[in-house]
Amino acid sequence: MARNRFEQVDEIQPDAISLTLAKKGDQEVGVMHVPKTAAARLPTDLTSEEAPAEKALVAAIQFANARKIPIVIIDHDNIWKSEWGELWRYTEEE
């Protein structure tokens, strides 16, 4: 997988694919949320089925590339792996 940069956020964004990563027991899973406001021609919000975290990331990247939509990551359980790319958080400079 190519080295990419992903912004970490705390909640679903209206203008991006939001990939939520979470621990479910001993598994790490991901769910992709696509608000209809982020993708032209989506009749309604889209939420994917739960999938293993890395598979969910690959699916989100493929969907984003096909639709030209940015991806953001919600990772409250801190399961992001550095081999998936760089995870960064926007901070306002004071």
Quick summary:
With 94 residues, the protein is α/β, with parallel strands linked by helices.
Polypeptide structure, described:
The N and C termini lie far apart (35 Å). The mean pLDDT is 93. By secondary structure, the protein is α/β, with parallel strands linked by helices. The protein is globular and about 35 Å long. The protein has one domain. The longest helix is centred in the middle third of the chain and has 15 residues.
The rounded Rg comes to 13 Å
Low-confidence stretches: none
Shape: globular
Overall mean pLDDT stands at 93
Strand content: 25-35%
Determine the N-to-C terminus distance.
35 Å
Number of separate strands? 7
How do the helices and strands follow one another from N- to C-terminus? EEEEEHEE
Classify the secondary structure makeup into a structural class: alpha/beta
Q: Count of helical segments?
A: 1
Helix content: 10-25%
Major sheet size, sense and barrel closure: 7 strands, mixed
Number of domain modules: 1
Topology record:
Layout: E1 5-8, E2 17-24, E3 27-34, E4 46-47, E5 51-52, H1 53-67, E6 71-74, E7 86-88
Parallel strand pairs: 1-6, 1-7, 2-6
Antiparallel strand pairs: 2-3, 3-4, 3-5
State the main characteristics.
94 residues; alpha/beta; 1 helix; 16% helix; globular
